[in-house]
Amino acid sequence: MHGKGKVVVVLVLILFACQKQKDFVSIRIAGHAGMGLENTNSIFHDNSFESIELALAIDGCDGVEVDLQRAADGSLWLYHDDKLETQTNSSGCIAAKTANEVMPVTYSTIKNEELLEFTKLPWERLKGKRLFLDIRHYSGCDFSILDAQEMISSINDQLPADHGVDLAVILNRKQWVEEFVAAGFNVFLHVHPEIDDPTNISEDFPGISGVILKNNECQIDDVQFWQSKGKKVVIFEMRSPKGIRKALNKYPDEVITDDVRATLIEKY
Question: Which CATH superfamily includes the segment(s) 27-267?
Fold first, then answer.
């Protein structure tokens, strides 16, 4: 290749790299349940203290998303599934237990990580970071709907006074939105573009801070619609390099990823 040709190639590569950085640099990255809900490369169970600490230790990780459930006595615990027997050495559901009953429970893993109580999150490391609380609105035992005000009270009572966290809640139940907005929370509503009418939702819930969209359910037009309404857009379920690229190319404001390191590579 002649010298002039080499210069052109180098300039094209530099332009591409700069364009990629310009496109994605503003997108915030949060770890899904810590280091990932379905990440075979993670050495710790999702929603565990260890998994969350590991994600937050990665340079460039802007925060984490966790799954929050309320026990019968009002204590709050991080756990994803409906029933404890699917992931732990216990059985039943958190909504029917007390703190004393949940405290001894460990995950059925080699490391036997303990279920993490909300009050024992690594609050110092979380300062200045984003914390998404994906809130369970029903009991895993009988799928009865929980009381929104009781959940709000539990969160407010158990949040450290000086937590310094950029806190947001993810709601899957539309009927809870107004109560959480009125209580002062930044609410992100889980929207399904295939079945939800975005115009109706934007008119019915003007107080939400944004929406959360599943990666394989949304297109760039869905993202742009919500951004045009002044709402933040978060995309989740990113479990492969291809899926990560697909999500980033829709230009959301934030992503919740199952592979923080792979997402950072794609971002930069």
Answer: Phosphatidylinositol (PI) phosphodiesterase (3.20.20.190)
CA gap 168, 184 in Å, rounded: 10
pLDDT tens by residue, 125-136: 999 999 999 999
Q: Which of 260, 262, 268 is nearest to 44 (CA)?
A: 260
The residue extents of the domains of the chain are: 27-267
* pTM of the shown model: 0.91
If 0-12 CB within 10 Å is exposed, 13-18 middle and 19+ buried, where does residue 124 land? Answer: exposed
CB 98 within 8 Å of CB 71: yes
Token pair recorded at residue 78 = 């991080």
Q: Tell me what pLDDT residue 38 has.
A: 73
pLDDT in tens, 192-213: 999 999 999 999 999 999 999 9
d(CA 173, CA 187): 11
